Amino acid sequence: MNIPDFSRRSLLRGAGAAGAGLSVGALGTGEAAAASPAAATSAEAPPRKGRTMVDTPFERHRTVRVGLVGLGQRGGSMIDLYLALEGVRVVALCDPVREKAERAAKKVTDAGQPAPALYTSGEDDYAALCARGDLDFVYVATPWDFHFEMARTALREGKHVGVECPLALRVDELWELVDLSERRRRHCMQLENCAYGRNEMRVLRMAHEGLFGDLLHGAGAYLHDLRELMFDPDYYEGPWRRRWHTKLRGDLYPNHGFGPIAGYFDVNRGDRAVRISTFGSPALGLAAYREENMPPGHESWKESYIESDMSISLVQTAQGRLIRLEHDVSNPHPYDRLNILAGTKGVFEDYPPRIYLEPEMSGDEWGDFDKYADRDHWLWKEHADPPGGHGGMDYVMLFRLMQCMRLGLVPDFDVYDAATWSSPVPLSHASIKAHGAPQEIPDFTRGEWRKKRDGLDSEQPDDPQG
Questions:
Q1: Which residues pair with 433 in a beta bridge?
Q2: What sections of 111-170 are H helices per DSSP?
Q3: Residue 226: which residues within 8 A CB-CB, separation 6 or more?
Q4: What tens digit of pLDDT does each residue of 232-241 get?
Q5: What is 14-71 written as a DSSP string?
Q6: How many angstroms separate the CA atoms of 127 and 153, rounded?
Q7: What is the pTM of this model?
Q8: CA pair distance 71, 96, nearest whole angstrom
Q9: Rounded to an integer, what distance in angstroms lies between the CA atom of residue 310 and that of residue 428?
Q10: Which among 383, 404, 390, 392 has a CA at the least distance from the CA of 88?
């Protein structure tokens, strides 16, 4: 169930300082690059090499010392939010494009913090950042190929690590990060901001209060027209994201849809994702866009796109619930993550938000979701107008994560969630190749999913500042 073998260096060759801020050379030639594409195709869990990270709290930190790796579109904006958080200090920055690192460093000093150390010398300088003795948390915001090796390096150096999605692109890589997290007693987390959206967290609370009755099915998606951006050499600073459409056929970006629905269903906390079946449409959108917009001789004319314009996956849980995941970034479509939840007492559908609950509503007419604002999660009651992009969800996510580290709390999500939410990347590709045949999703918790425990639906700490 792994993606086709190919050189990480060759994928982004010529991309310059790749879209999220690191050049292709930083991918290295380590164990992952040499791994066979047939490795770890079984859903059977390998023997545990450490102790479970379930319900493992952070050690308490008076100040959380952060290092950022990748200062492009994502990392270059997220640094503003780290600097806005009390009790957080940015001590190190890494990007092979020195101008980016210097620009980010100025933000740090302008915020009144000491000048951070810069790591801009060579393709593998992130390893030197991870080796620092004065770091508690490493944030990775780089092109997808880099995520596994950087997360692995941070864990080996004894650092907690948060990674932009997806966590990794192969099943064996996901297992390796699970094992490293358990052995090194450090958290490895998927920084899934959409799980912290205001609507998502309100629906989460309502679901756990039983307002939807017994939960039956949900849907999440990433429907986002990225054609112009994928052909823009300045936005992604090269073809790295577009070229994934020449390598995989399935859901390249499942996390934004999967994470919130997994929260509603308490996946890994009383239920688990068991299997996935995926079907894909023809791959036509990028080629059509290229035909209309790219001049003769443009590098994209050498590319053959195989990624399904629309992939639709069905995930079944151990309790028999269904999760529908959709992915389409290659065709005209207003932005949509679906965000649907249905149970025996009613349904919520987003974009636009609307709700139908019995006995409050009848006559097949949607109700007003705003009337349930009193069910907002405490994070959104405390931060009603948060700074930053994506409607404030980025800030809310980082505030809660840094709060957990400062107070020594169990994080809202862990390495098992990260692995589960990213597993559709390789498994959907395998399912499409097998004409939709179901692919088993590994139990990354090794049986711990049966234990009821807290997750994104957290309780507000008595002393939020510690």
A1: none
A2: 126-130, 144-156
A3: 241, 329, 330
A4: 988 887 899 9
A5: T-SB-TTS-BGGGG-SSHHHHS-TTTT---SPPPP-S---TTPPPPP-SSEEEEEE--
A6: 7
A7: 0.91
A8: 9
A9: 12
A10: 404
